[in-house]
Amino acid sequence: MANWFNSTLHAINIGASTFSKDIERQGTDVVQYDWSPPAGGDIALLEALDRLNTAETDERNAEAVAKIKAAHPMLIGINHARYEIPGMHAQLILHAGPPVEWADMCGPMQGAVIGALLYEGLATTEAEARELAASGDIEFAPCHEHDAVGPMAGVISPSMPVHIIENVTDGNRAYCTVNEGLGKVLRFGAFSSEVLDRLRWIENVYMPALQKALEVSGPVDLRTLIAQALHMGDECHNRNKAATSLFLRDMMPAFLEADLDEDVRKQALAFIQKNEHYFLNLSMPAAKASLDAGHGVNGSTIVTTMARNGVDFGIRVSGLDGWFTAPANFVEGLLFPGFEPTDAAPDLGDSAITETLGIGGFAMGGAPAIVQFVGGAVEDALDYSRSMYTITEDENNTYSIPTLDFRGTPLGIDIRKVIETGILPVINTGMAHREAGVGQVGAGIVHPPLDCFTKALKAYSEEVSHV
Amino acid sequence: MIHQTIVKKKTYHDSVTLMSLAGKLKKQDGVEEVIVSMATPMNKELLENVGLMTDEAREATDADLLIACRAEETVLPRILEEVEAALGAKKAGAKRGEKTSVKTFDAALEISPEANLAVISVPGEFAAREARRALENGLHVMLFSDNVSVEDERNLKTYAAENGLFVMGPDCGTAMINGTGLCFANDVKRGGIGMVAASGTGLQEVMVQVDRLGYGVSQAIGTGGRDLSSDIGGIMMRQGIDALLADETTDVLVLISKPPAKEVEQMILERVMRADKPIVLCLLDGKAPDDLPPHVTFTTTLFEAALAAVRTYEPNLSVELVSDEAKTWSNVVHRTQGTERFIRGLFCGGTLTAEALSILRGRVSPLTSNVAKRKDEKMTDVFTSTGHTLVDLGDDAFTVGKPHPMIEPALRNERILKEAADPTCGVLLLDFELGYGSHDDPVGETIETLKQAQAIAKQEGRILPIVTYICGTETDKQGYADQKRRLEQIGAYVAHSNAEAVEIACTIVKKGVEIHG
Fold this sequence. Notes:
The complex is a heterodimer.
Chain A: H1 2-6, E1 10-14, H2 17-25, E2 29-33, H3 43-52, H4 55-70, E3 73-80, H5 81-84, E4 92-95, H6 107-119, H7 126-135, E5 139-142, E6 161-167, E7 173-177, H8 193-217, E8 220-221, H9 222-230, H10 241-257, H11 262-274, H12 280-293, E9 303-309, E10 312-317, E11 324-327, E12 332-335, E13 348-349, H13 353-356, H14 378-388, E14 392-401, E15 407-413, H15 415-421, E16 427-432, E17 440-446, H16 450-466
Parallel strand pairs in A: 1-2, 4-5
Antiparallel strand pairs in A: 3-6, 3-8, 6-7, 9-10, 9-13, 10-11, 12-17, 14-15, 16-17
Helix pairs in contact in A: 3-16, 4-12, 6-7, 6-8, 8-10, 8-11, 9-10, 10-11, 15-16
Chain B: E1 2-8, H1 15-26, E2 31-38, H2 41-49, H3 55-59, E3 65-71, H4 76-95, E4 101-102, H5 105-111, E5 117-120, H6 124-136, E6 140-143, H7 150-162, E7 167-168, E8 174-177, E9 180-183, E10 190-197, H8 200-212, E11 217-222, H9 235-246, E12 252-257, H10 262-273, E13 279-283, E14 296-299, H11 302-310, H12 324-332, E15 342-347, H13 350-360, E16 367-369, E17 388-392, H14 396-399, H15 413-420, E18 425-433, H16 442-459, E19 466-471, H17 480-489, E20 493-495, H18 498-510
Parallel strand pairs in B: 5-6, 6-7, 10-11, 10-12, 12-13, 13-14, 15-17, 15-18, 16-17, 18-19, 19-20
Antiparallel strand pairs in B: 1-3, 2-3, 8-9
Helix pairs in contact in B: 1-4, 6-7, 8-11, 8-13, 9-10, 12-18, 13-18, 15-16, 16-17
């Protein structure tokens, strides 16, 4: 105490800023903490939070995040979903986000299901497909519950080829379809013959070509590709230009060397070259394979999944079973010409797995080329990235943000910190038209509903108090 | 008149900012009502009471911001714009790359890892949590917030004491550590007089008086008003005494409090008795303990406490409480009718009210105050004065949904006019607080009202003497000389101490009816 009297005063002012101004006026060092009520001012929730604020939880979280950081995702192959995805069967259709029944699905997801049933030959017309989907003979399940992820509607049916990503550190795998490109595509709910023809081409022509190229190249190191792309202006969710180029560059010699029909070779290379979001369907399963490594750490409050089905937003937490859901928000951002805000479906897709890993919106500060989606100023993008460090457990030294002096990306969303600060994860994402098959109508940013985190925290706190 | 009520979801601003903003806007022409506040149950009730409640506002929660206004049609949009501009300013500032404010405690620590004090002014139900976190990170705490439970206070102080840390508060308004005034504090010289006080304006007054006598303060530690209750046991008072006794720059200690709980007083006295430095024990309204050793001086007023402390350096110093100037002034004040018999003290400082009560007790009657503890001295209705009345306008009854009168002195104006209209009011006794934390121009906020009050009395053939005290130093940011000059311009007396002001007020009402010749 006597020491305090002999030292220089350094104050933190929590609350009324007039006090910090007067302290500053006296030439004394002061930091103003613009306080707002933790847990939104909900005292019961705050008490639940404080029960979880223990050294043990901190340790568990450090453990979960260490596993995620150590994960090393590689592309090891591509094959039909039915042979690879655990639990896949002829009547199973996987979809994005938390569980949802056919009747409740949003327009684009219903369209994608119809397309998948037509593609599988289980129905021959839209009407038949709708009837079948509603009959109860088809089982629907989240991709996430089958080690898979899918952008937008995220529909995966048994015949679809899926990239196989293995976390070579732990041996767990994750799966994702091949990105079809923009415009009329299945993931936005289109199911015209053009869409189905492309899916068949991917299955019959592209998949065998990539298989042969991968035989030549061997496993592709996605962790390195993502790390490099982040230094080239991608955030690997809404911008995949650099990553797709790098992937194409890495695969080029293999495609050239592989025993392929010349026409097939050209078609396959042109397919990757023309779709700058090709890599999204690799960054997503890479993120999934990494996060799954950190899932199931008992007592950890780290978020391992964020996903949307166009109706609900769902999160999963390392130390908890099941989903915590709340109605999905609408994306705010830029609409393509000719579309109105009312045209957009609520937030949709598993692509928020990238943000869960600390890239995507979390790394937006390093992707200045797409800041028009977030208000136009690079400083805004940097602020989004900076603010994410306040809700994450750690920084990921594998992936870094050049514009933040190569600071590691914010990794390990801690539900405790989200509740404490009220700061929600920021997600960069595309907007789907609310009707099936129209396609993308814009892009912007979206946040998960706070309720997902509130529910998870309450569930946790109950578990703790029962022990 | 039109009105509009807006709810801004999840938008938090501290109440001091909001209330001073609302206060500023309300003064504009064409504005009838402006409420800018967080949607707490209390503020929603306020909204209901002024008829600006909407369904949306009813659903709003503590974390949502309410903006409601009733004004002329041409004025209302501008008011709403001004609210936006005032509350949005901070963000725009931050965007220019000034990272002086942060959103989390961890971020604050990151910027200032050497931080050793947290000043906390968040709503009471959250304050203990913030304080605990600060203590756990090794920071001393000044807890300005009130409405902290006794249990939380005890736990925080026990933890702090075990870890060699201070918890000043809850409800601690004033402190000065290492020469920096905190919250409500005056710009005083540094010196060898160390203070520990369970009262805010009491501590300010002693610091100011010491400064006026030419001496300075080493440290001024606030403990919060409840520290000396039997529930808390004077944990911080005892710790403060120990720290100041150990502090080489402190020559003499001044301890300021209302009379403590008996067993706590014993614990304090034990320390005081064996102290190796002179100690001034100022117990407002208290009785001198028996058998005080020579190094302990007992006083019951703040002025005497300052004087006694200074006598450590000048043993023979003698200062008349009531100056010649005051005597001259009170002599020319006359009364023309027989009704104006009572003192009406309207205070912004709580302890200054208590000091006035202590001085006047037994000398004027009937005497009531809203700070009185004795049953026969309590006011039945704090909004109405009868007889000699001393009102602390910082009382919760006056500040619900409003800032403290030290921040917003205009709160007192309505009451001033009410007293002026009362034919039994014989003298207005007012205090003004300068210094950090206080309003930028307290006299300016009041002066027009005082002129109006004088006019009201004059109209009824009365003269209304105004006796004031400005608790401030020459170097306070508001400019003491200018504040004083403006009060004197309207014929008010500006006393040298709160005690002197009370004495003069007492002299005036005790004078017989004189007809001015």
